[in-house]
Amino acid sequence: MTPGLSDCLTPNRQDSRSPPSIFNYRKFWAECLGPAPFLPTTRAEMELLGWDSCDVIVVTGDAYVDHPSFGMAVIGRVLEGQGFRVGIIAQPDWHSAEPFKVLGRPNLYMGIAAGNMDSMINHYTADRKRRNDDAYTPGDAAGKRPDRAVTVYSQRVREAFADVPIVIGGIEASLRRIAHYDYWSEKVRRSVLLDSRADILLFGNAERAIVELTHRLAAGETIGACRGIRGTAFITRGPEPGFSEVRSTDIDNPGPVDSHPNPYEGMAPSQCDSEEAAAENTDIQTIRITPTTDNLPAVIRIPGYEQVRDDPALYAHASRVLHKETNPYNALPLIQAHGDRDVWINPPPIPLETEELDWVFELPYARRAHPSYGDAKIPAFEMIQHSVNIMRGCFGGCTFCSITEHEGRIIQNRSEDSIIREVEKIRDTSPAFTGVISDLGGPTANMWRLACKSKDIEAKCRKLSCVFPGICKNLNTDQTPLVSLYRRARNVPGVKKVLIASGLRYDLAVETPEYVKELVTHHVGGYLKIAPEHTEDGPLAHMMKPGIGTYDRFKALFDTYSKQAGKKQYLIPYFIAAHPGTRDEDMVNLALWLKRNKFRADQVQTFYPSPMATATAMYHSRHNPLKRIRRGNDTLPVVNKLKQRRLHKAFLRYHDPDNWPLLRDELKRMGRRDLIGNGKLHLVPPRDPPKRHRRVSSRGNAFTTQHTGLPPRQKK
């Protein structure tokens, strides 16, 4: 008997922390055909493999690169490893339905993703200017995917095969699973499920969900019956049978704080929750694992699309509740009305165990671009082809970042042996390998094997970050296992150098000085990029980032160990302009800090309101979802006018003569004429230099920083 939805999703099921392994499914019959050198992209390639049809076809906005850093390759190889025949349609011409018929009709469903990037972020800068390149396309060519690719591709598939189920996923669908603020149209849009007319949406890293869904469809279930799968969302009408509905506004009332019944009364909060509730001055407690209303498991109804569209306070409230329901061990389903229909969002998937993640990364990837691209370079692949992903997830919780919303805050680790096997495979199979591993990392370089010390506390915790406002006392911060991994990797025969290029969480790094020493001595190629993001407490609090004092501690260790190693090495800090919670005065102070420390940002990062991020909710609503929403409290400073956004960006490039007129006018307006002059304590000079004396900045990678005294940048 097929389990009901409530049976699948009740959070206190004894096996909720041990779901069926992806190894436990009986493989589909096509396993006997063996792995394909490349998943087929044409009928001719299918015929060479002896296939008469595909079980699943994946449509993607990226070029097809058969590498574990590309989503279409991961999903394709995972399903192939389960015995299914998978075809790839990469970057199809979306102006008609014909290119979507190239592989014929799939037996089970069409899977659709925009690619490794959201298509709108891929296409537009933070100033909404159209980009003229695309790193995920051969030759870096722009225009090979449409805006809102998931929706457009889905519409074309419906035209091509009206009755074939459509499964959407990837970062674009994942971050649009509920009603969301859309920066490019400056309005709140519906869930992508409705606009795409898809049958089901998979969010986050979807291996568990895609394996279960595909096997159930292959066994004869209909797509409409596959509703009890974690990490999925679908359209319904009203609560599913077996659930009791609880309104989110009864849990966390967005208004003046009045006395109201607490549906979680009597549940003792975890230590993490007690600290968070005290910081927020609220009475939020750990969600009851089995709410007692009618003795049924609960689904939380968040304000509907029309409500959040028209009321910024309710938008911020819905964002707050969504982010509170992201721990897979205690999250409840969410439901959101869109007119007369509802979008049902199941709890996130249970993280993969180490042996499962090892299997995913060691599938038979070709580790190169599809041969049809010839010698054309795909910049995104060129950058990562000799890097190794060692983990997934991030518990940093930075409000401007989408990693936590997509991958989750519980770290999923590969084993050391699996990582070393991939290093050896790169050495043995890549013609371009010169002995340098460009990165051992992931979303964060130094979170590998870091986790809560207590599984029970982890299962109850509802904090959005394990490291803000300080490092949780329950977090294991020992990074010595990474030291062992680094030593083993660089001692692999044929490996000359192992670099660490992923973002480093320096507030964690200083907890293990031995790690910093190992990193600085052996794994920094002269420059190390880190991201303090700002210097002022106001913006940092709204980013959920540590104070600048932690950066100073890390820099002291970095300089000490660099000197001991006899190396001249430099930190390259990233900063964000125009983040919610930032005032003009904050940018002045940041610019002064940059000048004192002799940093000159060549390219800078302006806050980009990506869908579903907490900082985007701040930007749109002027409320802070990190605290209980109070109506009328619209005091959060938000930089949403283009002129002010450019001003904040100009402060980061205080040294650029093109910005001096704007900065002088602003400093005068702020009453800071004392910062205009030619002295060391001044920010900008009183007059512009002759144009012939202006230094033109060279073009570099995004957010690179020049430090005075460094050797001149090499031309490409």
Q: Can you describe this structure?
A:
This protein has 716 residues and is of the alpha/beta class. It has four domains: 41-237 and 340-359, 3-Layer(aba) Sandwich (Rossmann fold); 239-337, no CATH class; 386-508, Transcription Regulator spoIIAA (2-Layer Sandwich); 524-608 and 641-716, no CATH class. Helix content is 31%, strand content 13%. The chain has 26 helices and 25 strands. It has a ten-stranded mixed β-sheet with strand order 3-1-4-5-8-9-13-12-11-10, sandwiched between helices. It has a three-stranded parallel β-sheet with strand order 21-22-24. A two-stranded antiparallel ribbon has the order 2-14. α12 (312-324) packs antiparallel against α24. 48% of the residues are buried. Mean pLDDT is 89; it is low at 10-17, 257-270, 278-293 and 696-716.
Helix content: 25-40%
CATH architecture tag of the largest domain: 3-Layer(aba) Sandwich
Mean pLDDT comes to: 89
How many beta-strand runs? 25
What's the helix count? 26
Main CATH class of the largest domain: Alpha Beta
CATH topology name of the largest domain, in short, is Rossmann fold
Spatial gap, N to C terminus: 63 Å
Our estimate of the beta-strand percent is: 5-15%
Rg (C-alpha, Å): 26 Å
- CATH homology superfamily of the largest domain: Response regulator
